[in-house]
Specification:
Elements (H helix, E strand, L loop, with lengths): L3 H27 L3 E3 L14 H13 L3 E5 L2 E5 L2 E2 L4 E5 L3 E5 L9 E5 L2 E6 L4 E4 L5 E3 L3 E3 L3 H13 L17 E4 L5 E3 L2 E3 L6 E4 L2 E6 L2 E3 L13 E4 L2 E6 L2 E3 L3 E6 L15 E7 L2 E5 L1 E5 L5 E8 L2 E6 L1 E8 L5 E13 L4 E8 L13 E21 L6 E22 L5 E8 L2 E2 L3
Parallel strand pairs: 1-2, 2-5, 3-6, 4-9, 5-10, 6-11, 9-12, 10-13, 11-14, 12-15, 13-16, 14-17, 15-18, 16-19, 17-20, 18-21, 19-22, 20-23, 21-24, 22-25, 23-26, 24-27, 25-28, 26-28, 27-29, 28-30, 29-30, 30-31, 31-32
Antiparallel strand pairs: 7-8, 32-33
């Protein structure tokens, strides 16, 4: 039997120790782990290649159970970096994480690109695989330093025997970010600038939010090749909101597989449940493009966005004659246009890189597509046409549209379900 005074001392010590034991857990919740890349040797001199120092920072944070890698103000050059689960990336105001243009710092590997897995192509600047809950945030910049890479691309393409079919992945170049097989991803506030290839490539991701991000190439560069803003490759439940796009390829593209056996491709599930809202599209080949590699795309809504003055197309549905495609429930509404040129709608054949591989031409379906509540000025209404004998186009609705066009015509063939309701062009009702 213990002595009463001993028992009392034990209780008192337990009570005193209880708050002390709770402190580490509380402190951990209140102060998430953060590690600046400069603490691990990264130099902001716009010259030193900091890949080793930054990867060391990532590995350290991962080894501590997770946290945030911080890029402070300054220009930090790097090669390919690989995030790990529970490791986030934050770019402070004035921070620039810049691609090296020496492709030795992006050693080729097996990677997802253009609707398949290339056995040997360059990784991105930021790579994340299986990183559920990933956050890439801040007012800083991911800079692709793309101009010399673009110049090389056009030089080699011009010298190719068939420039129209010159392979995009024939020139080594890096995307800015590749996030794959991850859920609950947030990309917020970051500027994606001068990417050598695609800017933000999402592959097989779900429940993604891209908010307040910017995607830009220089105004004085006529055509920065393949500088798509966001590529939604086999993804579901993605929201893009309050973003800014000024690129020279597709602003947002839904992508998947391609070729006659595309429906058998288990690596390319449908692109579904996409929401794009409150964005500004200043320059680009298309606001929202389905293809060029895409098989099943369903439930896409683009709403309350501003478009112009250097956007070439608004709604683009690329119809590949060598790929079975199913585009359904694709809607654009509440758009304000402000451009002297461009097509509002382009649903038509796309033949670049065509290859049936000896198979018969596949059948495709385009169904339940609408443009509603469109106003402003643009070049022309556009074109709707199938791949003859291959594409069934039905239930297309144009409604509550009032636009001033340089050419007020809609070239529509092979779309028997096309409906026009309250559509005015240059002050007059549009009829087919």
């Amino acid at each position: 039997m213990s002595h009463p005074s001993t028992a009392r001392r034990g209780v008192a010590l337990s009570l005193l120790a209880a708050p002390m034991l709770a402190l580490p857990a509380c402190a951990s919740l209140a102060q998430p782990r953060r590690a600046a890349i400069t603490d691990f040797g990264a130099l902001a001199d716009d010259r030193t290649v900091n890949t080793i120092a930054i990867q060391k920072t990532i590995d350290h944070v991962a080894g501590q159970g997770g946290g945030t890698v911080v890029v402070p103000p300054g220009v930090f050059v790097s090669g390919a970096l690989f995030l790990k689960p529970k490791v986030h990336l934050h770019l402070e105001q004035g921070a620039v994480l810049k691609c090296s243009t020496d492709m030795r710092h992006f050693p080729a590997q097996r990677t997802r690109i253009e609707g398949h897995f290339a056995p040997s192509f360059n990784p991105a600047l930021i790579n994340a695989n299986g990183c559920d809950g990933l956050k890439i945030t801040g007012a800083g910049t991911l800079d692709g330093a793309g101009r010399p890479i673009w110049d090389l691309f056009w030089k080699l393409r011009k010298a190719a025997p068939d420039p129209h079919n010159f392979a995009n992945i024939g020139v080594p170049r890096a995307r800015l970010a590749l996030i794959e097989r991850s859920r609950g991803v947030t990309v917020e506030g970051v500027t994606f600038k001068d990417s050598q290839f695609w800017n933000l490539h999402l592959y097989r991701c779900q429940d993604v939010t891209v908010r307040g991000a910017r995607f830009e190439v220089p105004d004085d560069y006529k055509q920065a090749p393949s500088t798509d803003g966001i590529d939604l490759d086999s993804c579901q439940r993605v929201t893009v909101e309050d973003c800014y796009f000024s690129v020279t390829d597709d602003c947002i593209a839904a992508k998947g597989s391609k070729g006659p056996q595309a429906l058998e491709d288990k690596d390319s599930p449908p692109v579904e449940h996409i929401r794009v809202r409150n964005c500004e599209f200043r320059r680009g080949h298309g606001v929202m493009t389905l293809g060029s590699e895409a098989t099943l795309v369903r439930d896409v809504l683009v709403e309350n966005c501003r478009v112009g003055p250097r956007v070439q197309n608004v709604a683009v549905l690329k119809l590949r004659a060598d790929t079975p495609q199913h585009y359904e429930d694709i809607h654009f509404r509440g758009l304000t246009l402000d451009s002297d040129s461009g097509l509002i709608v382009a649903i038509r054949p796309w033949t670049q890189y065509f290859n049936l591989k000896g198979a018969p031409p596949p059948k495709s379906i385009v169904r339940n597509v609408s443009l509603v509540g469109i106003k402003g000025r643009f070049g022309t209404f556009g074109k709707i046409a199938p791949n003859p004998g291959q594409t069934e186009i039905g239930d297309i609705l144009l409604k509550d549209i009032d636009v001033a066009l340089g050419t007020g015509t809609l070239d529509a063939t092979g779309a028997p379900g096309l409906r026009l309701e309250n559509v005015r062009v240059n002050g007059k009702p549009l009829t087919l």
